[in-house]
UniProtKB/TrEMBL annotation:
Name the UniProt record assigns to this protein: Hemin receptor
UniProt keyword list: Receptor, Signal
SUPFAM superfamilies from the UniProt entry: Porins
Keyword Signal attached: yes
Signal peptide feature range: 1-19
C-alpha cells in the first residue's frame, strides 16, 4: 500500500464527487446533456442557427415547426471528417494529442403533402433526421516529480495521467410540421438518442525500489475504471414560427428533458487482490430546454437568423445509492443553466450560396474549490472557474451550389474551449474506495492535480441533396 494523506480544507459536494471518476461529471454535462452539433453542411456552416428559417430536416434540432416551411420533398446525406486536438499543461509541462474520424454525419429527409382544400392549411410535412457524433477524446497530462507517494519500500513520482474516451453518440428525430396560410407554422418531434462509450482513467508512476535501487514505471487505474456504457434516451419537442411584416420571422420551441437509461460494465479493485467486473444501471434526466429565434429574409438572395437556447432545469439522476446522491448534490450546487446563442446568414448569387455563422455556449459549471497540488508538491485550497468544462466558441463557413433539383454544400466548422481538468484524487477510508490501483499496490490522494486543457475541434462536411 502506498498512501499520502493530506488535510482536507473544504468538505462539500465538490469534494465527494471526486471520489467517483471525474469522467462521470464531464460525460453528464457534455455527452448526455449537450446539444447536437452535427447536421448538414448548411446547418454546420451557419453554426446551427436556423430556428426561425426552417425548410429542411435539421429543423428538428432547433424547432420542428421549420418542417412546415418546406414546399418540396427532399433527401440529404452528409459526410463528415472531424478532427480534434487536446493540449494539456501542468505547471509548464504540456502534451498534445490529435485524432481524426470519418463517418456519415447526417442523413435526413422531408416529405411534403400539399392540402388541396379551401382551408388556410397549405401543407402537412413529415421529416426525419439522423446525426452521428464521435465521442473520442484523449487527454494526456505530463507528470510532476514533486508529486510523490511513498513508504519504506517504494517511492513513486507522478509520470503522466490520461483520460481516454472512445465512442459514438447518435440522435434520430422524426416529426411533423404544418403550414397555416403560408404565415404561421407548427411542429412536433420525437427524439431518440443513443450513446456507446468506453472510458479510461489511468495514472503512470515512476517507481524507485529503495532496497534494490531499481527504477521502473507502473500504471495504475482509477477505481471503477475502465467502464463501458450503453445508453438510450428519449425526448419530445414542440415549436411554432411565423412571418412578420418586412421579411422578419420569429420562432419558439421547447424540448423536454431527455430521459436516459444507462447500462454500465466496470472493473473494480480490492486491497486483498480480489478484483473483478461488475455491472450497474442508472437513470438520468437532462435539462428542459427552450429556444427563441428571430430571422430576417430580405429577399430570395439573403437571409439571417439568431437563436437563443437556455437550459431551464439541471441534470438529475434517479437516486439508487450514495453515488447518485453525490452527483445530484454537485449539480444542484455547481451546475449552471447553460445558455447558447447562435447567429448565421446565407447569401445567394444565382445558384451559388455563401454561408457563415457563430455560436457561443456558456460555462455549464460555476466556480468550485478543492485541495490542489502546488508545483512544489504541497497542497492548498484553490478555486476554479472552469473546472470539468467551460464556455465554447464555434465558427462556421460554407459554400454551396444548386443544380436545380440536385445540390451540393460544403462547410468548415471550428470550435474551441479551455477548461481545468482535475485528476489523481482518490482514497479508501473503509466506506469509500476510490483509489488508483496497480497489480501490486494502490495510491491514495486527498488532493487533486489540476491541468489546463485546451480543446480544438475542426469539422469538414459535404452534403449531397435532392429535391423532388
Amino acid at each position: 500500500m502506498i498512501k499520502k494523506s493530506l488535510a482536507v480544507l473544504s468538505i462539500s459536494a465538490a469534494f465527494y464527487i471526486q471520489a467517483q471518476d471525474v469522467s462521470n461529471v464531464r460525460n453528464t454535462l457534455g455527452v448526455y446533456s449537450g446539444s447536437t452539433n452535427e447536421g448538414t453542411a448548411k446547418f454546420n456552416a451557419m453554426a446551427g442557427a436556423t430556428g426561425a428559417l426552417g425548410g429542411d430536416a435539421t429543423s428538428l434540432f432547433n424547432n420542428p415547426a421549420g418542417l412546415g416551411v418546406a414546399i418540396s420533398s427532399e433527401i440529404t446525406g452528409t459526410l463528415l471528417l472531424s478532427n480534434y486536438t487536446n493540449k494539456s499543461s501542468l505547471y509548464g509541462n504540456s502534451a498534445s494529442y490529435s485524432n481524426s474520424n470519418f463517418n456519415i454525419g447526417n442523413v435526413g429527409g422531408v416529405a411534403t403533402f400539399q392540402l388541396l382544400t379551401e382551408t388556410p392549411w397549405k401543407f402537412v410535412n413529415l421529416g426525419f433526421n439522423y446525426s452521428g457524433e464521435s465521442l473520442d477524446d484523449y487527454i494526456e497530462t505530463p507528470g510532476l516529480n514533486t508529486i510523490q507517494f511513498g513508504n519504506a519500500i517504494n517511492n513513486l513520482e507522478l509520470n503522466r495521467h490520461a483520460y481516454d474516451r472512445r465512442g459514438l453518440k447518435s440522435k434520430m428525430n422524426i416529426g411533423v410540421g404544418a403550414n397555416y396560410d403560408n404565415n404561421i407554422y407548427f411542429g412536433a418531434g420525437l427524439n431518440f438518442h443513443t450513446v456507446e462509450l468506453d472510458q479510461f482513467d489511468t495514472a503512470e508512476f515512476k517507481v524507485s525500489d529503495i532496497a534494490t535501487n531499481k527504477v521502473f514505471f507502473e500504471q495504475f487505474a482509477k477505481q471503477y475504471t475502465p467502464f463501458s456504457e450503453k445508453a438510450s434516451g428519449f425526448s419530445m419537442s414542440l415549436g411554432a414560427l411565423g412571418k412578420l411584416p418586412g421579411g422578419f420571422r420569429w420562432g419558439a420551441a421547447l424540448e423536454t428533458p431527455t430521459w436516459w437509461h444507462i447500462e454500465r460494465v466496470f472493473n473494480y479493485y480490492e486491497i486483498n487482490g480480489s478484483d473483478g467486473v461488475a455491472a450497474e444501471n442508472r437513470n438520468l434526466r437532462t435539462p428542459l430546454k427552450a429556444t427563441l429565434s428571430a430571422g430576417y429574409v430580405a429577399s430570395k438572395n439573403f437571409s439571417m437568423n439568431i437563436d437563443y437556447t437556455i437550459g431551464i432545469t439541471k441534470p438529475h439522476y434517479k437516486v439508487r445509492g450514495a453515488a447518485e446522491t453525490e452527483m445530484n448534490d454537485f449539480f444542484s450546487d455547481h451546475a449552471n443553466n447553460v445558455s447558447e446563442i447562435k447567429a448565421g446568414a446565407e447569401y445567394r448569387i444565382k445558384d451559388f450560396r455563401i454561408r457563415g455563422g457563430y455560436a457561443f455556449a456558456s460555462n455549464p459549471v460555476s466556480p468550485v474549490s478543492m485541495n490542489t497540488y502546488r508545483q512544489d508538491g504541497s497542497d492548498a485550497l484553490a478555486t476554479y472557474n472552469n473546472l470539468f468544462a467551460s464556455s465554447r466558441n464555434t465558427v462556421g463557413l460554407g459554400i454551396g451550389y444548386n443544380f436545380k433539383s440536385f445540390y451540393v454544400d460544403a462547410a468548415y466548422q471550428h470550435s474551441n474551449t479551455k477548461y481545468n481538468s482535475p485528476f489523481l484524487f482518490g482514497y479508501n477510508d473503509g466506506n469509500i474506495n476510490s483509489s488508483y490501483y496497480s497489480a501490486n499496490s494502490f495510491v491514495d490522494s486527498e488532493s487533486s492535480a489540476v491541468a489546463d486543457v485546451q480543446n480544438k475541434r475542426n469539422n469538414f462536411s459535404v452534403t449531397f441533396g435532392w429535391k423532388f
